[in-house]
Structures are given as C-alpha cells and as structure tokens.
Amino acid sequence: MVTIVPSFGRIGEENAFAVLARAGQLAADGRDIVNLGIGQPDMPTPPHIVEAGIKALRDGHHGYTPAVGILPLREAVARDLHRRHGVEVSPDSVMIVPGGKVTMFMAILMFGEPGAEILYPDPGFPIYRSMIEFTGATPVPVPIREANGFAFSAEETLGLITARTRLLILNSPANPTGGVTPKAEIDALVAGLAAHPDVAILSDEIYGTMTYDGEGHHSLLRYPGIRERLIYLDGASKTYAMTGWRLGWSVWPKPLYDAARKLAVNAHSCVNAATQWAGIAALDGPQDCVAGMVAEFDRRRRLVVEGLNALPDVSCITPKGAFYAFPNVERTGWKAKTLASALLEEAGVATIGGPDFGVHGEGYIRLSYANSPENILRALERMGTFLAARPNG
Asked: 116 to each of 8, 106, 144, 189, 255, how far by Cα in Å?
C-alpha cells in the first residue's frame, strides 16, 4: 500500500469550505439556507474589470507569462500602493500569485522547520496554523482578544518572541474578527521588533480597503525600518469581488524575492494571463466601485451588529474592518462549533464556529455580512427563534 510522508497528516483545512459544501447539499435537498459562512462578496466583479479580461482573451493573451507576473500589472500594483499608502515600491519586488494563500504558503515554507517557532494570530485565518504545522515548525498563537477590540497587542506579541522565532504573521483588518489594529499599537510593535532583527514579518492586508467609522488602515509598508524583512500580502479577491479569478500579489524584500520566484516556477508557473490584464483594469480603473461596495458592507455591518445584540444571550462588539462579525455566544450555554452546526442543520443558517479559527475562538461564531440585507435579516430572525427555543444548548 502506498504511503505519503507524515507531514501531510498535519495539514488542516479551512472549514468555511466544508460548511459551504454542506449548505449546498442541504439546499440541493430542498432546504432554504441562508449562507453567512463564506467570506465572499455577493456583488459581481465590476463590469470594466470583466471586459478587460474578455478583451485580453480576444487580443490573444493565451500563453504563459513570467512566473512573477507581467510587468504592467506589477507596475499597477506599485502605483496602487503609492496611492493608498504613500510608499515607494519597485515593480521588481512585486510578485503576482494565484490568490492570497500562495504568499502565506511561500513565506511559511521559507521559515518553517522543526525547531523553529512561527507566531500567528488566534483567532485567525486557519491556513496560517495549518501550513506552520505542515513544515514541522511550532505554531505559537498570538491571542486576539475581544477586550482589546480584536486588535493585536504589541506588548503581548513581543512577549511571545523567543530565540527560536523565525516569522511573525500579522493580519489587520482581520479575519475572522473584523478587528483593526490602531496605528499606536503598530508603532509600538515595530519599535519593539528592532530588538529582534532576525524575525521576518508577514503582513496579511487583504482587507486593507475595508475599514469603517473613520478607522484608517496603517500598512506595515510604511515602516522603513522593517522593509528589508517584511512580506506584504494583498490581492483582488475581496476589494474587487474577484474571488474566483484567483489574483493576488505580494511585495518581497530583495533577499527573499528569488526564492519566492523559484517556488512559483515549481508550483504554479504563472497566473493566467487574462486575469492579470483584468487586474490592471481593477487597479488603474475607477475606484468608485470599491467605495460603493464598502459603503454597502458598512450598511450591512450596522444591521448585523444591531440584530446580533438583540439575540438572547448574544453580544457583539462592532467590527472596524473586513466584512465579518464575531459575536460572543458564551452565555447561550452552547459550545461554539456545536451551535454553528445546529444553526445550519436546524435553522438553515450557515455560520462558522470560532474554534475553526484557533484555540482562542471558543465562545464565538463568525458571520459574514457579505450577503444581502434581506438575507441577513432572515438569518437573524431564524437565529433568534432557534436560541429562544433551545436555550443552554
């Protein structure tokens, strides 16, 4: 019997896709399901971006591209970063990749090995821990606490760094909590990292365009003192409703860029050409589509927070970014994953249990408000009816 190497036994999953599949199965069986589980905008990709992809195909862009991406798109990324963050980025440090996860995969492979430690946010995107464990490195969770507005604490994060720490992963605005870390906390973290010059940093800023209530997004690219060890992660999936196009990009320090290029050559060769030309239209085209989507998410955010706080024994602080709410359900008496499963199977509402995002996720569930206001209201009504009928688990 064939066997695979033991490291594959350590790979985890992103349970949002399992919930999506189960919700689809229930819907196929005739159930009416409201899906607040998957983190995917319900808006279509803006028409001018779609047309750019179609034009690229008609113009004959059917072949391989450079593994790092076409130069016009890398230049567009550099212009976008200058426009949004006021930073100078060389197109030669930009890499075009098929989605955000690829940058995580590359960075963790570069620094993860037995004996190494990698710090990651918890609760956080589950692929961080999955990939760390795959490499044999020790995952060290950085607690993301409700009491801190779901922002990371610079003091607590710095206190977890040891001589074995190789990589620190940061995410703001954050999945699954919607937390946004304020500039003062980022300033303190960067200042403290000066004492740890051998620690690389992966900054996942995929939700960087989605902040609310006047809260600004402060990119780690703005800190010259860490640029030589900073890996910046971004992409088109959330900002431009392009999840299925599989278009991400990253900015690498010069010493790491060629290693990332080699991984791209070995893994995926290149991002498909038409998607890259569509990406140029997204970045260089009108940005009112982004502002419109964020304004709509803001409206839904207020709706979902108000509705969650009206549910029996549920409380929810107001998220400052992304399109997720992370309500506290501890007082309901339910374990979070059990509650999420029961809501799907019995109430027809798909959510994700907090422990799917880490050990500090118990007591919470994640709701995506990237769904219509009508569906959000239906889901909240069903959740209220369920919790009233099934108190204390």
From this structure: 18, 16, 22, 21, 20
Q: Would you say 246 and 275 are in contact if contact means Cβ atoms under 8 Å apart? A: yes
Q: Kindly give the residue spans of alpha helices, DSSP state H, lying in 224-272.
A: 254-267
Taking the model in full, what pTM does it have? 0.96
Phi, psi (deg, nearest 5) at residue 137 = -70, 165
pLDDT tens-digit readout, 204-248:
999 999 999 999 999 999 999 999 999 999 999 999 999 999 999
Exposure string of 368-389, with b = 16+ CB inside 10 Å and e = fewer, is: bbbbeeebbebbbebbbebbee
Reported as type and span, the H/E element at residue 73 is helix 71-85
349-350 and 34-35 as β-strands: parallel, antiparallel, unpaired?
Answer: parallel
- What residue spans of 194-287 are helical by DSSP H? 254-267, 273-284
Q: For residue 34, what are the β-bridge partners?
A: 349
Two tokens at 66?
């450079």
Asked whether 320 and 179 are in contact (CB, 8 A), the reply is: yes
Give CA–CA dist 283/286, Å, rounded. Answer: 8
Query: Model confidence over 344-361: pLDDT tens digits?
Result: 999 999 999 999 999 999
pLDDT at residue 302, rounded to an integer: 98
Nearest residue to 173 (alpha-carbon basis) of 109, 238, 111: 238
CA 90-228-96 angle, 5° bins: 45
Total Cβ atoms within 10 A of residue 115: 9
Which residue is associated with the tokens 């279509």? 44
253: number of Cβ within 10 Å: 17
Sign, CA dihedral 168-169-173-179, equals: negative
> Exposed (0-12), middle (13-18) or buried (19+): which is 275, by Cβ within 10 Å?
buried
> Which pLDDT does position 20 carry in this prediction?
85
To which H or E segment does residue 111 belong?
helix 100-111
Q: Are 263 and 236 in contact (CB under 8 A)?
A: no
Binning pLDDT at 50, 70 and 90, where does residue 266 land?
very high
Q: Is the dihedral of CA 340, 343, 344, 348 positive or negative?
A: negative
Tokens of 14: 């992103």
Residue matched to tokens 């350590």: 10
CB-CB contact of 201 with 110 (8 Å): no
